[in-house]
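Internal ticket - ligand job 417, iron/sulfur cluster:
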Amino acid sequence: MSLTTTITRAWLTRSFKSFSFQNDYDDFLPFEECDNLGLYVHIPFCKSICTFCPYCKTVYHKEQCDRYIDALIKEIHKVGSQYERKKETTSLYFGGGTPALIADRIGEIIAAINEHFIITEGIGVELHPDNVNVETLKKLKAAGVTKISVGIQSFSEKYQSILGRKSVDSNSLKIVLDAVEFETVSMDFIFALPDQTYEDIKSDVDTAFLSGANHVAIYPFIDFSFTKSKVKSMPKKRKKELLDRITTYFHQKGYHRSSIWTFSNKKEAQYSSMTRDNFLGFGCSATTLLKEQFKINTFSVDEYCKRINDDELPTSLTIRFSQRQRMVYYLFWTLYSMQLDEKKFEQFFGVSLKKMYGFEFWLAQKFGLLTKENGIYSMTMKGAFYYHYYEQFYTLSYIDKMWGIMRKEAFPERIEL
Ligand SMILES: C[S@@+](CC[C@H](N)C(=O)[O-])C[C@H]1O[C@@H](n2cnc3c(N)ncnc32)[C@H](O)[C@@H]1O
Ligand code: SF4
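stdout (structure tokens):
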């Protein structure tokens, strides 16, 4: 565990208590009282596996995938039918893996969701560039999908080959994306790859906006300890230079920054499954965040199906938060969207932000990380970099450790972070 995350955690939670995830779960998930509730569905299948990728996924086999979708629909009904009344939610995101591989059955999953939930801000699906064809996009659109996100990673042959991916033809992409329109067309890029320059990234994002994207996500490369990737991370100083220059370029172009890593050329184009106060996750490895707890489903496809077929929830681990721990969670994920409204914090916790974290927010303003106007804190460019810097520690100390264990053990006894 990194010293930085341990000290920050102890400081912000005012306790030396670790984040303790236990192998138990509640059958009943109290989501009715949750405002700003999002939905997430995980599809853990890919045609082939990329060495750098940390997510829960396995090679696609039709028979296993069909069994998985049957189980997924049962999980949705099991959780959704806890309450008679349909629950209003913000958005539904399908992530993976490669959810577009199940375009033929996505309508069944959405229909199950619609029996219990009302979605007010649209449905998003992740695609591999191989899935970007008129037939698949039409199927997704007919099922009700309004946003898509394509994992490009880079348009440059050099970086695709470093990542072990095939090159992507931006012209064919444009033809298909022009033929089937979506509200948001996002493209993912990985940056801070070895020797990558500002011109390389600028060329990638310019090509994205010219090829039909109205939103881009640029993720700094993370070298997870359990992946087989040989790619090395870029030194901090160079990464900061790159991030500063590309952010300045986005600002000059008048693009809107909707979160730490995402930018759009129109404000309505949004793609983010992370920035919700609460969410319900369905499927392998999916997480659920409620007012007082956070839970993670098993990473094993077979154990997932088995639990569901035994009419049990597939939860692997649950953490029951102390109030300060929940606050840290709230602050971390809300600031990911670059803004924090002190009124909303008070509504959520029933106590003012000033009382709980007045000193920290004052300090952050003094250091030029945040600005404040009409009760809303906004992250500065410097703040966004240090958030990113801290997020890397968090990812490597918490997510790396947890996912490293969970991909080997379906139901670990406990994990202390
Ligand atoms: C589930 S994948 C995307 C969808 C699709 N499976 C694909 O690969 O095109 C989500 C995104 O996470 C990002 N990602 C994956 N591994 C990463 C890593 N080691 N460091 C940073 N970003 C990563 C990539 O940009 C990827 O598009
Ligand atoms: S990057 Fe996408 S295609 Fe590659 S293994 Fe991860 S989820 Fe699958």
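Auto-summary: The two ends are 8 Å apart (CA to CA). The mean pLDDT is 93.
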